[in-house]
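Limitations

Structures in this collection are predictions, not experimental determinations, and the ligand pose is part of the prediction. Treat each record accordingly. The example that follows, with nicotinamide-adenine-dinucleotide as the small molecule, is included so readers can see exactly what is and is not provided: the inputs are given verbatim, and the output is the predicted complex.
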Amino acid sequence: MTFTIDLGGKSAVVTGGGQGVGRAICLSLAAAGARVIVNDYVPDRATLVAKEIEELGGAALASPFDVSDYAAATKAIGAEKVDILVNNAGNAGPPTLEAAPPGGRGPSVSLGEFTNTEPADWDRYFAVNLYGVMNCTRAALPHMIAAGDGRIITIVSDAGRVGEPHMAPYAAAKAGAAGFTRAIAREVGRDGITVNNVALGTVDTIGLEDMARESPELAERVRRQLKRYIVPRLGQPDDVAGLITFLASPAASWITGQTYPVNGGYSVNM
Ligand SMILES: NC(=O)c1ccc[n+]([C@@H]2O[C@H](COP(=O)([O-])OP(=O)(O)OC[C@H]3O[C@@H](n4cnc5c(N)ncnc54)[C@H](O)[C@@H]3O)[C@@H](O)[C@H]2O)c1
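Predicted complex:
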């Protein structure tokens, strides 16, 4: 018996697809046959991943824009026939372009004690993790409703499910995105559109485990973190991409309004 996911003829937008988890999702959707529109705030990142897909024989287009810019998201996504939207862009939003080489880190999701922060510090988390999701979903839905078919998958975080100290604004924005997508799932189910969340534990997108080999302090932090995981390793981007590709497929047409953890067992669902 074989099992194949065939996304031939489908177009997928992946936000923040220029590196890390987003890049793995782009490659996986393309391998399943989708044409992938690779979004990233950093144009070079989007271009490199689109090129990588084409070199592997897939179809891709780089689409650089900032998801927190409603007009830009509407213009870019509105110009495409979008069957699949993966809201992946997140964390603390875009770095400045000067500080954003392909593979570089963005600003930290950790802000320290909440009582030491002010509303101006919170904005960037809501801009990308909540408004970015709302903007792109708003832009993609009219196509999907007209087609009577669609898939929306939003990457959230266990920080927004279980809570994580020093990350309150990030956790709040991710929990907001999860609530938003549940509401949208109820609005568009009868249009053949499914809407789900995937909540991640720590995924080693920045070479954390490699860095820990050189820093005893970081190694200790990673060791403490892994003690909380049933499968005691950090996640890898490919651990996420398979579930996203399945949820994007026709095989997942009766799955909607859900939040799936991909987290090595850091938290468990009933
Ligand atoms: N890596 C983890 O441990 C982890 C854990 C939980 C959730 N997540 C979530 O998974 C998703 C991917 O994380 P990652 O670790 O691969 O992140 P990453 O920072 O390595 O990559 C994110 C990409 O998104 C782009 N981006 C950021 N803001 C953007 C914006 N406003 N518009 C367009 N592009 C933008 C960045 O340029 C970057 O290329 C994020 O939503 C993140 O919050 C990650």
